[in-house]
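Reopening: structure tokens for the iron/sulfur cluster complex, inputs below.
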Amino acid sequence: MAFLEIRDLRVVYKLPDSGLEIAALRGVDLDVDRSEVVGLVGESGSGKSTLAHAIMRVLKPPAYLQSGRIYLDGVDILSLEDSIFDKEYRWRKIAFVPQASQNALNPTMRVLDHFLDTARHHGLVDRREVEKRAAELLTATGLDPSRVLGLYPHQLSGGMKQRVLIALSLLLEPLLLILDEPTSALDVVTQAGILKVISDINKKLGITIIFITHDISLIPSIAHKVAVMYAGKIVEVGPTGKVVNEPLHPYVSALISSTPSLYADISAVRPIPGEPPSMAEKITGCPFWPRCPYVKDVCRSEEPALHQIDNRRVACHLWRP
Ligand code: SF4
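Re-run output (same inputs, fresh job):
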């Protein structure tokens, strides 16, 4: 059994006025091994953040979990009582740094107070112990605690805020850390620094990490495995080198070709034609077929399942075993 197992997870947004249901996750299956870094990639609206919210059990109406299972270390975490999940899992075993959370730091509190407040909230009251741990974690993220602990959020750069948030998320020594777009809105140099911090944390502490991004070019420098999402499902998952260098799914090839790189010729960048499907409408066949250069008749009527092809899984009629 994998450390994190997600099985047939389905999440729907139900609009209160019209009763219209928008499928955000349409049956996600994903395995994450202990101490692995998994890159979760896809265009905006593909379901990446919804998946993170479902794992953290922070889906809010109109989103609701329709069906599926999530096992962490063998425990079915969706079936736990709220109080048990809050006390034993949220932040303690699973930590989450949401998208754009740099602005979530309280502007009236110094960095040290954020650590003390989080610790107090979880029953850790030994101030000296928390200060020591905060200093260790800030050092691990490349910050000087003697300077940073006394600063207010407005005195930190975007990259420093992101490092503080990562350090804060590690305070309770979680087993799984989910980072949602931790490098967006940062310049490339700061991005590289944050990627190094995440990689070092994984190597030093052995923490399992799910790294969510829309930018597949970041994945080779950080993730052991990559899972690519499209229209609420995973369409290809496997070792990073294989998926990024020899993608099997036409959408993954198109995504790579549409991503500018610092090293490749910009004229070689090819935008993906068309638009992703509307999730408010019933999807018939492969959700990528209107944009796919390899579309066959069967693609328009039958949605492909995720099949094992060597050491990866692919959902495409071109790759049936
Ligand atoms: Fe293209 Fe068909 Fe594969 Fe979908 S199933 S990606 S339409 S070839």
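The first helix runs from residue 48 to 56. The two ends are 23 Å apart (CA to CA). Marking as resolved unless the reporter disagrees.
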